[in-house]
Amino acid sequence: xxxxxxxxxxxxxxxxxxxxxxxxxxxxxxxxxxxxxxxxxxxxxxxxxxxxxxxxxxxxxxxxxxxxxxxxxxxxxxxxxxxxxxxxxxxxxxxxxxxxxxxxxxxxxxxxxxxxxxxxxxxxxxxxxxxxxxxxxxxxxxxxxxxxxxxxxxxxxxxxxxxxxxxxxxxxx
Length: 173
Prior knowledge:
The chain has 173 residues and is mainly α. It has one domain (35-169): Tetracycline Repressor, domain 2. The protein has 10 helices and no strands. The chain has helices at residues 2-7, 14-21, 25-31, 35-39, 41-55, 63-78, 83-94, 96-120, 128-151, 157-169. The protein is globular and about 50 Å long. 25% of the residues are buried. InterPro entries: DNA-bd_HTH_TetR-type_CS, Homeodomain-like_sf, HTH-type_TetR-like_transc_reg, HTH_TetR, MftR_C. Pfam families: TetR_C_14 (PF17754), TetR_N (PF00440). One of its GO terms (molecular function) is transcription cis-regulatory region binding. Keywords: DNA-binding, Transcription, Transcription regulation.
């Protein structure tokens, strides 16, 4: 990440990233399909944790309440994002290859979340309500992260996410 921010993604090679991480090119390639994938790894880990945590929420919670609680728990686990992450979001918006991969991952996580929401409702396949809820939740997270990076304000990402989720919560309570 640091190398991409300092030198620009197009100028950074996989070899340079592997060297900076203290691993061989082969080891890097065993874990990542390319520098774009490595760049997005942290966000993907958060999303996986989100799915895993949501799946364990109490059944008596509404799905939207469970989503909000899940976000808070994952945020507590991983903590606030640092300025490097904000730089990553800006970098992704300016590089089509990173943005495309990031959007593909968001779509993948949204599909998985849709199925988990449907399972909570005890239905065999997801309906429109489940898709809309998962899409709204993922959009709230994405919009909050973009807003936070653009504002460069004193508000934490957590505050912006909470505000974003509150805007949608009225529809799912």
